[in-house]
Structure formats: C-alpha cells, structure tokens
Amino acid sequence: RIGAEVKEGDILVGKVTPKGEKDLSAEERLLHAIFGDKSREVRDTSLRVPHGADGVVRDVKIFTRANGDELQSGVNMLVRVYIAQKRKIKVGDKMAGRHGNKGVVSRIVPVEDMPYLPDGTPVDIMLNPLGVPSRMNIGQVMELHLGMAARTLGIHIATPVFDGASSEDLWSTVKEAGMDSDAKTILYDGRTGE
C-alpha cells in the first residue's frame, strides 16, 4: 500500500512457488502419487524488505501480459515496489527543486557558521546564483521573495502551479512586509560576523 512504513523483513509482494518433483521427500512423493496435485507443497518466495533497509512505500507498479506489457519469457507478472528512505544529506548528494534547478551538495557546515539575516535567523541552504540565469527559472526567485515576505508577515501562502500569485501580488506582499522594493537583504558571515 502506498504510504505504508516498512522495515527489514516485511513482505512487499506475497508469492508462493510450487516445489518441483525433485524438491519433494519420499513421503511427499508418495502422498503426491496418492492424492495428486492437492498435496503439492509450495515454497514461500515472497519479496521482502532487505536486511538493514526500511522506509515508506512511494509507488507500486504492476506489469502484466494482459495489459500489453513486454515481459521476459516465463514471466507472467512483474511487480516493482519503490521505497523512499530518509537519511541525512551528505557531500556529493544531488538535490533538485521544483523549478528545474539541480545541484550537488558541495559543503555542509554547522548552523552557527551559516550566513544569517539581520534579525539573526540563519540561512538553511545556499544556492549558486549562476544556476538561475542558465535555467531561466524566474519562478524560483519569485517564490523566494514571496516566501521571505510571508515569513515576515507570519502568514502561509499557497499558490497553485499554473494559477499562482501574479507579479503585482508578489510586489504588494513584499511592500506590505516592509522589505526593500527589490526584495534584497543583507547577509552576515556566520564565521566573522561581517
């Protein structure tokens, strides 16, 4: 089920496989000869969460021949379960935003070393400004300004993807928050205080 939390050993896909004739003991072969297929034993071959893994089920995809999916010979159904694992980011991890920007984590510093705003609030993340013009993701810049204004005003703003706040709404909110007309702010170095 999507959204389910799973841990090591949990069954993701239930599956049983009939034992072949060579897997049966002498007693089982005798019972099989007397009663037929009813006595045939099955082996549990369920897909389980591997050792040391856990997470939340994000997606389940089922491929079958009946749906016209191409499968290997001898395979009637293929089930893929995608599990998201939460972990702390580290240097070298790739991150992406919803505006088409992406980048690699190059440095992680303690919060006291991060640049901070005039009111003393430390910055959570810093992006390379060269990533904005090359991708032309002006929506990211507008969202940052609107977010800073909303934080100052103590309000939450939800903007739908294709029917969000207009630039007039954005600048009026920035003005209402008492921010500079260009929405720029000063950052102080967390290490030197300059």
Automatic annotation (TrEMBL):
GO terms for biological process: DNA-templated transcription. This is DNA-directed RNA polymerase. Residues 1-194 form the DNA-directed RNA polymerase subunit 2 hybrid-binding domain. One of its GO terms (cellular component) is DNA-directed RNA polymerase complex. Keywords: DNA-directed RNA polymerase, Nucleotidyltransferase, Transcription, Transferase. The keyword Transferase applies. One of its GO terms (molecular function) is DNA-directed RNA polymerase activity. The gene is rpoB. Its EC number is 2.7.7.6. InterPro entries: DNA-dir_RNA_pol_su2 (IPR015712), DNA-dir_RNAP_su2_dom (IPR007120), DNA-dir_RNAP_su2_hyb_sf (IPR037033), RNA_pol_bsu_CS (IPR007121), RNA_pol_RPB2_OB-fold (IPR014724). It comes from the Bacteria. Pfam families: RNA_pol_Rpb2_6.
